[in-house]
What we know:
single chain; alpha/beta; Rossmann fold; 6-stranded mixed β-sheet; 12 strands; globular
Amino acid sequence: MNDPAIISLSGLSFSYNRSGQPVLQDLSLEIPAGSITAILGPNGSGKTTLLRLLLGFLRPWQGTIRLAGRPLKSYSWQQRSQLIGLVPQDEHIPFDFSTLEYVLLGRAPYLGPLEMPGQADRQVALKALHATGLAHLQDRPLPNLSSGERQLASVARALAQKPHILLMDEPTAHLDLSNKARLLEIMRHLSTQEVTLVLTTHDPNLASAVANRAVLMRHGQILDTGPVDSALTPTNLSATYGVPVRVFQIEGQRVILLS
C-alpha cells in the first residue's frame, strides 16, 4: 500500500470481439491512493468495461493493470476481493435474502470454504447498515426494498467488505436527493479512511461535488485526466459529451450546464 498510485494502467486495450472495434484503446492512467476519482463519459465510452477489467472479471488483450504495486493477475480471488470492491449500477439477486443477509455477503472474502459469518462479521454488517441508514430494514426481504434502498444495500455490502479500493458504477442513479447526500457523505468519509474510490458517472456536477480527480473518456479513449479543477473545463467537457457545455461558479460551487 506504499505505492502512491494504487491503480496503474499501461497501454490497456480491450475488445469483446478481437476482430471488432476496440472498447478501450491504449489507456494509460494512474490513480493515487486515497483519492476520489470520477470517470466521466457518454454511453459507450467504456467506463463500465474499465471497472470490470479492474475487478478481474475481464482480461485485457493488451497492456497491464497493477493494483497496489502488483500485477492484477498475481492476486488470488480472495486477495483481490479483500483489496477491491464494487457497487454495481444494477445487480440481480437470485435469492430472497433479507437485507442483513445480503450485506453479510460482503464478508465472504474473509471466510473459509463453507464457513458461516460469525458474530464479528454480523457486527461489521450492522455497522454498514447504520452508515447507509438501512438498519431499520435489516430483516426486510431484499426484493421488497425500493430501487434506492437496494442501491444503498449494495453500498452497505461493499462497506462490510472493507476494501482498500471501492469501485462504484453510477452509484447515485437510483437515489433521491436525501439519499444522494447520504452517499456523498459516506464517500467523503471513506476517503478520509484511506479508501480509494473510483466512480463512473454521466453527471459532471456529481463529479465536481465529490471527486478530487477526473478522467474524461470518449470512444474508449482518455481525453484528459487530472485534478477536477483543471479537468472539468468547458472545452474538455464539450469534447467529451459532444455538445456545448458551460461551467459557472455559484457561491463557490462549480455548476455545469448545457450551453
